[in-house]
Amino acid sequence: MLQLKGVFKYYSNNFVKTYVLRDVDIDIEKGEFITVMGPSGAGKSTLLYILGMLENLDDGEYFYKENPVHKFNEKKRTELHKHEIGFVFQQYHLIDELTVYENIEMPLLYQKIKGTERKSIVCDMLDKFNIVGKKDLFPNQLSGGQQQLVGIARAIIGKPSLLLADEPTGNLNSETGKEIMELFTKLNKEGTTIIQVTHSEEKAAYGTRIIYLLDGRIIS
Prior knowledge:
Layout: E1 2-13, E2 16-28, E3 33-37, H1 44-51, E4 59-64, E5 67-68, H2 74-84, E6 85-88, H3 100-110, H4 115-128, H5 144-156, E7 162-166, H6 174-189, E8 193-197, H7 201-204, E9 209-214, E10 217-218
Parallel strand pairs: 3-8, 3-9, 6-7, 7-8
Antiparallel strand pairs: 1-2, 1-4, 4-5, 9-10
Helix pairs in contact: 3-4, 3-5
């Protein structure tokens, strides 16, 4: 489903290249539940952003369902991202001007789902995450944990083929965190391919395979 070949990512400053990812090769089959681990600064989030088509790679190749993403223009990548990928951001990335309801609804608008069906799906999601009472609030009126739940709801509402999650339970209490991981396990069993970044050995255990990054390289 996903394949990275010889991928490099770097930032240039005064003719000096600072490498974030170095010669990364990854093969991920449909239906896997992958955990990416490693110390801070290892390149985990950057790897997730490249897989999510939110950042370009600087060298190498990226194939998604045999499509050469590295050759796509920004518009084509964005379209593929909207219809195929759900992304749970570490810093939430909710839209400040939209209510909880409107933030969660956004992926369904991209997919052009009709109004009555859209309303039903959003209401189900609000109920599933126990945030019905928050639906008319704005992100700045929510706690960090509540924003995280809204971000997760938004990521999965469009039933993406690929779910990317950057520290998805980092701002949740242990009980809610466990519920989210069990939800991810259920989604995975239903066919969603999942790649999560976490520092938690406990959360990593929910996955089927662990990829370790160190200084931008895969070490195991």
